[in-house]
């Protein structure tokens, strides 16, 4: 009863449950890096530091312009860095997720493969 | 139909549930995991050491891993089936305890092992002993119980039948179900509500484990740096992050939230004014709004997503500055910062504090109004309706510039739901457990006694206060009553709990007569009213009793009010006495209902401070008609509004009005031996005909009692009472007085005046007996422990 139930559950409800968990975790990572938002605001000022800057002279306006320019550049670099890092993490997680999904159906079969390997005398020899 | 309610011990779910219970999942999981690790490491070492047997160990490890996943994902909680069969909708917990031959009695014993069963036991008193008492040992009775359980689950929209539902079904199937629950002051709907409450809390815990998506690390990247706002304001969005989601149980609050989203999503005046009384849940709406903005999955416009709400507090701003000019500069900088940051919504809680001068407030309306009118900076204002009207009267443009959303008090059902939501936080804070009765009482008593707050705020405050009166960590309805009694200085129904109190109530007439003579109808009337109040059989939307005492002067009208206060209301200090001859002008109404801070001795101010009192309105016939009209609502509904339009409750007071109107007729007719009831009707008619009182005024009283003139026999008893009073006064000096019969007769002769009642008697006793004692004391004729015998001669001497 147990083994039949296990096999039936493993390839139906179990697989669905596992896939859902993997999908949720992937979604959480994508949300955490929010690459869409980063791309959309790639060169927006990093910090709007001139909130209370006053004055209407050309000097003041120029300084504010320079502030914003530097802030945009810093913002661009920071965002590109995070985008690259985020893409790597998401990519790695995607691979791990895919491998896990492929591995899931194989898990109940692995003992049979192991018995076959054992009786075939296959070993790994580290030199 | 019966088939789908029949338990099948051989169903797959039942077998899995029993197996899961037998295995003891947490322990077996740990053991399996340990063996899995050992087998994996051992197998790996063998394989890498050129021994192919290692594959077998790895195979075993893999098998263990599969089992581990299977047990944890399936056995821990066997998923529900897909049919309507009872075996598919019973929770795995219940299936695991049902065993192979369940009976109602067996299951009643085991329900405490389920979470929902424990919940009902703790908060509703549905303990195993009670369930075992109503359950039998017939296995066939399980099917009707399951049928009832299915009906309950359907009624409360529960997806599965839990232990709690089975517990209720066992009770509901008992023929004396209503009686059993009534004894516990519950009904079936309360228990259904209990299961809904459990399911809700269970859902909250489950959801709290899920990660909330809130925009990730890029969320605040493009927005401005806000050092000043971080220093002087409170970031509501940050404080709500990581907490349980705010639930809006009221349809009106949900609607307010939708309106806020709508207003801020579209172009136009970017402000919202939440207008409603304190405690009505304005802050809860703002909290829910802040969570909605940070929810990545919420369907709101892009220009609103991930905006953060900063609360500004007038007190914090004032403490950060020294001069008016400084505060204006600071607020300007704060608003500039918020505007430049582009992701800030300013929230002015108690916004009136920014529009008026006073302690803890600062008038910067000249600064804020242009910002509100321009509508470029998003703002939320929250303020009391009265304050809003006051500010609008001063600044009409203020009212026009705002998008108003009205927030009203919650209903009983909504308040109970809100309290159920808040209970886990209060329990965590105070380390107590609230029972369901505590919630119900918090609503009932909060609604009645807590002023200056609206629902649900007042009920939550009462609930929180009652935590201090928990017994063995549990907060019962009695704990709530105790909290109210202590905080409001009132006496609630629990007074009938002790034998002494019951005895006192049953013998009120005798106790009152220890202080006054005769006047049986009036004494009976007030005693009956108090007994009704103490046992909870009175109309709670009226004063305990309203009485008009009519009769000549000095016959005991005021004395009865004092006796009542002394016997029942913990002493004569709990009497609020107003001489109505001081309210003869129509303009005196304002003085009568003056607000406490302007006149502490007004009727409303005194009752607000001492709601559990005897209110004595002496010589009511002398008050102006306007004053009497003002009192109508007090007599009828137990409510009087003070000059600040605040409701003052008289519902825990006994109101006694005294009047000498019609005294002559009473005296005359009583002397001619007329029947009391006939005389009463005659007197009432004559009062109306003579325009002493209007019919609608007289009609408001529960009873109009006539006080008859005192006879000589009455005077003898009064004389005894007065002498007893003198002895009581002298008791600390261990001195007593006794009167010879002739001396007493002389006193009565001298003190009897049919027109003036007992007052001359009191004066005579004071003039003679008290003077004799004083002189004897000065002459050293009496000492501690002695009794002074007063003779007729001594009295005569004093009367000269």
Poorly predicted parts of chain A:
none
Helical/strand content category of chain B: alpha/beta
The counted number of beta strands of chain A is 0
Largest sheet of chain A: none
- C-alpha-based Rg of chain A, rounded: 27 Å
CATH homologous superfamily placement of the largest domain in chain B? P-loop containing nucleotide triphosphate hydrolases
CATH fold call of the largest domain in chain B: Rossmann fold
Greatest interface and its participating residue counts: A-B, 50 and 50 residues
Count of discrete domains of chain A: 1
Mean of residue pLDDT of chain B? Answer: 86
CATH class of the largest domain in chain B: Alpha Beta
Number of helices of chain A: 4
Kindly state the mean pLDDT of chain A as a whole number? 86
Short descriptors:
heterodimer; A: 127 residues; mainly alpha; 4 helices; elongated; B: 800 residues; alpha/beta; Rossmann fold; Helicase, Ruva Protein, domain 3; 5 domains; six-stranded mixed β-sheet; five-stranded parallel β-sheet; 55% helix; globular
Structural features, described:
The complex is a heterodimer of chains A (127) and B (800). With 127 residues, chain A is mainly alpha-helical. Chain A has helices spanning 2-33, 35-40, 58-106, 110-120. Chain A contains four helices and no strands. Chain A is elongated and about 85 Å long. In chain B, helix 36 (712-730) runs parallel beside helix 38 (759-779) and helix 37 crosses helix 38. Chain B is an alpha/beta fold and 800 residues long. Chain B has five domains: 12-207, no CATH class; 224-406, Rossmann fold (3-Layer(aba) Sandwich), CATH 3.40.50.300; 412-487, Helicase, Ruva Protein, domain 3, CATH 1.10.8.60; 500-706, Rossmann fold (3-Layer(aba) Sandwich), CATH 3.40.50; 712-799, Helicase, Ruva Protein, domain 3 (Orthogonal Bundle), CATH 1.10.8.60.
């Amino acid at each position: 009863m147990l083994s039949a139930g296990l096999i039936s559950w493993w390839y139906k409800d179990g697989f669905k449950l596992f896939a859902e968990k993997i999908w949720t975790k992937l979604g959480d990572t994508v949300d955490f890096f929010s690459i869409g938002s980063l791309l959309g605001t790639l060169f927006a000022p990093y910090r709007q530091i001139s909130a209370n800057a006053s004055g209407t002279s050309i000097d003041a306006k120029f300084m504010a312009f320079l502030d914003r320019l530097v802030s945009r550049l810093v913002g661009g670099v920071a965002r590109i860095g995070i985008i690259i890092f985020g893409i790597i993490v998401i990519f790695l997680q995607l691979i791990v997720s895919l491998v896990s999904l492929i591995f899931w159906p194989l898990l109940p079969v692995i003992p049979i493969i192991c018995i076959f390997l054992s009786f075939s005398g296959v070993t790994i020899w580290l030199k | 139909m019966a088939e789908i309610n029949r338990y099948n011990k051989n169903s797959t779910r039942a077998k899995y549930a029993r197996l899961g219970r037998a295995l003891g999942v947490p322990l077996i999981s740990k053991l399996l995991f340990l063996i899995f690790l050992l087998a994996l490491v051992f197998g790996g070492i063998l394989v890498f050491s050129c021994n192919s047997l290692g594959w077998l160990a790895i195979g075993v490890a893999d098998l263990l891993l599969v089992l581990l996943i299977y047990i944890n994902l399936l056995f821990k909680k066997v998923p529900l089936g897909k049919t309507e069969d009872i075996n598919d909708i019973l929770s795995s917990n219940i299936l695991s305890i049902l065993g192979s031959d369940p009976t109602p009695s067996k299951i009643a014993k085991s329900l405490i092992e389920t979470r929902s069963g424990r919940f009902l036991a703790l908060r509703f008193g549905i303990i195993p002993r009670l369930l075992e008492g109503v359950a039998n040992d017939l296995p066939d009775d399980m099917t009707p119980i399951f049928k009832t359980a299915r009906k309950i689950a359907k009624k409360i929209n529960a997806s599965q039948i839990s232990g709690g539902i089975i517990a209720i079904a066992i009770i509901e199937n008992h023929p004396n179900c209503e009686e059993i629950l009534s004894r516990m002051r519950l009904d079936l709907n309360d228990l259904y509500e209990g299961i809904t409450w459990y399911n809700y809390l269970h859902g909250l815990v489950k959801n709290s484990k899920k990660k909330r998506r809130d925009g990730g690390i890029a969320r605040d990247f493009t927005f401005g740096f806000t050092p000043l706002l971080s220093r002087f304001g409170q970031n509501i969005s940050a404080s709500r992050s990581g907490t349980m989601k705010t639930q809006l149980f009221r349809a009106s609050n949900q609607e307010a939230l939708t309106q806020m989203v709508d207003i801020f999503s579209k172009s136009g005046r970017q402000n919202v004014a939440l207008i409603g009384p304190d405690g009505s849940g304005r802050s809860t709406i703002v909290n829910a709004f802040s969570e909605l903005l940070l929810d990545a999955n919420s369907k709101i416009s892009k220009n609103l997503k991930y905006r953060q709400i900063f609360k500004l507090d007038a007190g914090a701003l004032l403490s950060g500055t020294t001069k008016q000019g400084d505060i204006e500069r600071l607020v300007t900088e704060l608003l500039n910062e918020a505007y430049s940051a582009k992701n800030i919504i300013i929230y002015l809680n108690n916004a009136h504090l920014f529009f008026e001068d006073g302690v803890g407030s600062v008038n910067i309306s000249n600064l804020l109004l242009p910002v509100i009118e321009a509508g470029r900076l998003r703002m939320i204002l929250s303020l009391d309706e009265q304050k809003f009207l006051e500010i609008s009267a001063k600044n009409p443009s203020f009212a026009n510039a705002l998008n108003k959303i009205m927030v009203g008090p919650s209903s009983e059902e909504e308040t109970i739901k809100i309290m159920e939501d808040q209970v886990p936080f209060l329990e965590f804070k105070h380390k107590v457990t609230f029972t369901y009765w505590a919630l119900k009482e918090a609503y009932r008593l909060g609604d009645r006694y807590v002023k200056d707050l609206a629902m649900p705020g007042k009920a939550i405050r009462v609930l929180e206060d009652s935590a201090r009166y928990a017994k063995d960590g549990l907060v019962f309805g009695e704990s709530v009553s105790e909290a109210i009694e202590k905080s409001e200085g009132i006496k609630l129904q629990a007074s009938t709990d002790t034998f002494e109190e019951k005895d006192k109530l049953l013998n009120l007439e005798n106790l009152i007569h220890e202080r006054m003579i005769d006047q049986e109808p009036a004494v009976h009337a007030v005693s009956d009213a108090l007994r009704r109040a103490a046992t909870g059989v009175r109309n709670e939307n009226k004063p305990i009793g309203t009485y008009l005492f009519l009769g000549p002067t000095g016959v005991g009208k005021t004395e009865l009010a004092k006796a009542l206060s002394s016997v029942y209301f913990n002493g004569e200090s709990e009497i609020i006495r107003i001489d109505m001859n001081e309210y003869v002008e129509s303009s005196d109404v304002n003085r009568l209902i003056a607000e406490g801070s302007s006149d502490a001795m007004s009727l409303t101010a005194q009752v607000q401070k001492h709601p559990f009192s005897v209110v004595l309105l002496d010589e009511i016939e002398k008050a102006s008609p306007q004053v009497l009209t003002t009192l109508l609502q007090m007599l009828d509904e137990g409510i009087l509004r003070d000059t600040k339009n605040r409701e003052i409750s008289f519902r825990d007071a006994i109101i006694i009005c005294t009047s000498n109107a019609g005294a002559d007729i009473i005296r005359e007719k009583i002397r001619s031996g007329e029947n009391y009831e006939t005389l009463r009707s005659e007197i009432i008619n004559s009062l109306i005909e003579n325009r002493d009182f209007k019919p609608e005024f007289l009609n408001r009283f529960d009873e109009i009692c006539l006080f008859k003139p005192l006879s000589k026999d009455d005077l003898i008893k009064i004389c005894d009472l007065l002498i007893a009073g003198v002895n009581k006064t002298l008791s600390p000096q261990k001195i007593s007085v006794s009167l010879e019969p002739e001396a007493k007769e002389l006193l009565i002769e001298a003190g009897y005046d049919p027109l003036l009642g007992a007052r001359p008697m009191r004066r005579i006793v004071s003039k003679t007996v008290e003077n004799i004692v004083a002189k004897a004391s000065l002459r050293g004729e009496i000492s501690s422990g002695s009794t002074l015998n007063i003779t007729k001669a001594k009295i005569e001497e004093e009367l000269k």
